[in-house]
Amino acid sequence: MRDVIEELVPAWERGRTAALATVVRTFHSAPRPAGASMLVTSDGAVVGSVSGGCVEGAVYELAQEVIRTGRPALVRYGISDDDAFAVGLTCGGILDVFVEPVSRETFAELDTVLRDLATSVPVGIVTVIEHPDPRILGRHLIVRGDGVTGDLGSERLTHVVGDDARGLLAAGRTSTIGYGPDGERDGAELRVFVTSFAPRPRMLVFGAVDFAAALTRLADFLGYRVTVCDARAVFATPARFPGADEVVVAWPHRYFAEQNAAGLLDARTVVCVLTHDPKFDVPLLELALSDDNLAYVGAMGSLRTHDDRLDRLRAAAVPEVALARLHSPIGLDLGARTPEETAVSIMAEVISGMWGGTGEPLGDRRTPIHHDLAAHDIVDVRDEDDARKLV
């Protein structure tokens, strides 16, 4: 969708209306994934594709109608074999396509989104694709790591959707979510489509051990791009870590330094040190703890190993403020025994740190279960001169 959005700029700047068609949901053997987009301008030009050619003709006609009427539409293509052939969807898959008019009036925030894309700032767009009130259909929220801008018609709905969208942005995921009329999480009367313009967050797992194999599988499931690094080639093999995106044979501290120098680590990066071997751990942790921009740095080991590790790091002149950022022994106290249970313990601590969780049993809480956005995180932009805060 990124290239298609950039092509919107000329028409948007001239005050013209274009139609943006986006695949928001797929079933079976659909030819393009959710997020695939096609732009139709007011003069009939087409950019992008929603199906690789299968239903473009039908979507093109709908897009022209949307431009004429100014009313967005959600259409399903290929709901049956007969319908599939009628519009050319011969693969037998099913596509839900949302077509919306895009202009300065319908998408005033487009220029700020483009600025974020140009500067590689993670940003997400929430679009209302189904709603009982046609006036809300097609409204947007703009999602960033530090908050949400926009208005979906009610404070509660804006609050809840914005909270969920921030989670998807943090994971670099694009998805459709259903809600009740006022943001109830168990409803389906309204749906939003969240487009995330952000790479998957990275997890660097140092130590090609059994615990690393379980951790990479779970981290991959949670949306991380996982790298396993170990200096021992006999252990660091792709066959042992099918959940990893890459397996690197290198000294851990050297690989970390190279990645950091190349600007490939950021505030969403998680570092897990599982070797509990001083010759690997200490040089690596010296570097990782010196970077206060990382999301999480954890190290495996017993309490005795932890104390010995701290002594070695202090001897290497690592300051106490940096040592305070180290999660060690790694993970939350779940009573874990197996590698898989330990992986859950580690990821639970990562998630808790990301969203401000306490790690306490939810049954012991007397406050809202979901850690909602702070009041200043959501701003209604209908009147920027007197923006009101949403609670």
Biggest sheet, open or closed, and with what strands and sense? 6 strands, mixed
Q: Strand arrangement, largest sheet?
A: 9-10-6-7-8-17
**Percentage of residues in strands:** 15-25%
Radius of gyration: 24 Å
Question: With helices defined by DSSP (H or I, 4 residues minimum), what is the helix count?
Answer: 12
User: What shape does the CA trace take?
Assistant: elongated
Element order: H for helix, E for strand: HHEEEHEHEHEEEHEEEHEEHEHEHHEHE
| Structure classification | alpha/beta
Number of strands: 17
User: What separation lies between the terminal Cα atoms?
Assistant: 32 Å
Please mark out the parts with pLDDT under 50 across 5 or more consecutive residues, or reply none.
372-391
Q: Give the overall pLDDT as a whole number.
A: 86
Helix content: 25-40%
Organism: Cryobacterium glucosi
Pfam families: XdhC_C, XdhC_CoxI
Domain XdhC- CoxI: 11-78, 119-180
Domain XdhC Rossmann: 203-350
Q: Topology of this protein?
A:
Blueprint: H1 2-7, H2 9-13, E1 18-27, E2 37-40, E3 46-48, H3 56-69, E4 73-77, H4 81-87, E5 94-102, H5 110-118, E6 123-130, E7 140-144, E8 147-150, H6 155-171, E9 175-179, E10 190-197, E11 202-206, H7 210-221, E12 225-230, E13 246-249, H8 252-261, E14 270-273, H9 278-289, E15 296-299, H10 303-315, H11 320-323, E16 326-327, H12 339-355, E17 378-379
Parallel strand pairs: 8-17, 11-12, 11-14, 12-13, 14-15, 15-16
Antiparallel strand pairs: 1-2, 1-5, 2-3, 4-5, 6-7, 6-10, 7-8, 9-10
Helix pairs in contact: 7-12, 8-9
